[in-house]
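Shift notes (night). Ran IFM2 protein while the centrifuge was going.
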Amino acid sequence: AAAGMERLRSAGPPLPPYEPLSEGLDMEGLQPPTVVTVEPPPPPPPRDHLAWSLCTSLYGNVCCLGFLALVFSVKSRDRKVLGDYSGALSYGSTAKYLNITALLLNIFFTILIIALLASGTIVMSKLFNHQQDQHTFVGPT
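Came back to this:
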């Protein structure tokens, strides 16, 4: 086995002597490339939903949910200004859920009122027609 290794070593061209690279040079004799580390951009600040909360409190303040959403939106904005992104995210998500709840309740109550008005109009028109059929106008005699 040792003789086989000697044949493999002597088969190729002789290797040049080992020389350490001089300082500041890479294997091709060039200066190493400049490495620029790029930091990832900071995450965007959490949303505070202030405009949505303002509209909800002005136009759909069911059970004061719009006002509560506005309070939590302002708290979220204050936390964001102070740099507390976890607190801002918590207050912002609370404002978002309050806005969603107020919106769903507004839609439900609007549909309910429309249905009650429509059914009331139908009932009143039937009642009016029924009374008119019973009391026919005879005219002066």
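The chain has four helices and no strands. The chain has a mean pLDDT of 82.
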